[in-house]
Amino acid sequence: xxxxxxxxxxxxxxxxxxxxxxxxxxxxxxxxxxxxxxxxxxxxxxxxxxxxxxxxxxxxxxxxxxxxxxxxxxxxxxxxxxxxxxxxxxxxxxxxxxxxxxxxxxxxxxxxxxxxxxxxxxxxxxxxxxxxxxxxxxxxxxxxxxxxxxxxxxxxxxxxxxxxxxxxxxxxxxxxxxxxxxxxxxxxxxxxxxxxxxxxxxxxxxxxxxxxxxxxxxxxxxxxxxxxxxxxxxxxxxx
Length: 239
Description:
Strand order of the largest sheet: 3-2-1-4-5-6-7
Oligomer: single chain
CATH architecture: 3-Layer(aba) Sandwich
């Protein structure tokens, strides 16, 4: 049985990805930062549906904690599917953005990518099969007011992923980026009216976490073995 780690797996999109991978017969490590109960709940849903999963809690910005926790799960066998989904927002116009706001967002999305991905690479490469999918954003491709930190972090994921793809594709490991647009969540319900959505999104609706999860599951499958170094938008035609 292949094993997958989904960082930020207890959030809306992350949980949908965990459920979809679990339904595909993959053992899923549902990662969370602080809310173990939420991660355990997702594990319970996967197991109730007949899948296999367990929760793991650590801070992706803490390299030592990442190393310690990843060593534990590598004791059994390599992780062959990694979804770098952990990320945060801390929005402000750049002129008024504090250094802490800038750094915290970079640390989670981009620092977390390194802290989690790097320790898993050599074990994954030894199997000569792997899938790495990192979650970016439409903001990385077209920018967004008040999100210079977030756009920079997510755009960095694209550059890092393209470079990593060149390094390890010959070992049977693909590396891709998914860039969601406006995806349904309690936060998007508060931020946008239906009229705003229609004005911004050619599809005239928000996307669902399950639609994003379906794309990630495809990129994590055997069928996607000839797709690597790509950034695929799922945004209802926004880009």
